[in-house]
Amino acid sequence: MRVREVICRLIDDSWLQVSQKGSHRQFKHPVKLSKVTVPCKLSDDIPIGTYKNILRQAELEG
């Protein structure tokens, strides 16, 4: 899965990008309390472990 697809999934769930340093983007949700950091360039493939961790932090796994 590409980083761009992960970011689209977060945005579809109302996550907003609040900061970026280099290739690391931080997202915050207006209701959920956690922040999620998405590493890598938009065109990169994201490792499966990182993908699962992002979904867990964003409470999107299901």
Helix and strand pattern: HEEEH
The Cα radius of gyration reads 11 Å
Structural category: alpha+beta
Q: How large is the count of helical segments?
A: 2
Strand order of the largest sheet: 1-2-3
Instruction: Assess the beta-strand content as a share of residues.
Output: 15-25%
The CATH class designation is Alpha Beta
Strand count, sense and closure of the main sheet? Answer: 3 strands, antiparallel
Distance between the termini: 17 Å
Mean pLDDT: 93
In quaternary terms, these chains amount to: single chain
DSSP E strands, number = 3
Count of discrete domains: 1
What percent of residues adopt helix (DSSP H or I)?
Answer: 25-40%
GO molecular function: endonuclease activity; hydrolase activity; mRNA binding
Pfam families: HicA_toxin (PF07927)
Family: Belongs to the HicA mRNA interferase family.
Organism: Microcystis aeruginosa PCC 9717
List the helices and strands and how they pair.
Layout: H1 3-12, E1 16-21, E2 24-28, E3 35-38, H2 48-57
Antiparallel strand pairs: 1-2, 2-3
Give a written overview of the molecule.
The chain is built from 2 helices and 3 strands, in the order H-E-E-E-H. With 62 residues, the protein is an alpha+beta fold. It has one domain: Hypothetical protein (Metal Transport, Frataxin, Chain A, 2-Layer Sandwich), CATH 3.30.920. Strands 1-2-3 form a 3-stranded antiparallel beta sheet, covered by helices on one side. Strand 2 (24-28) and strand 3 form a beta hairpin. The longest helix has 10 residues, at 3-12. The radius of gyration is 11 Å and the shape is globular. The model has no long low-confidence stretch (mean pLDDT 93).
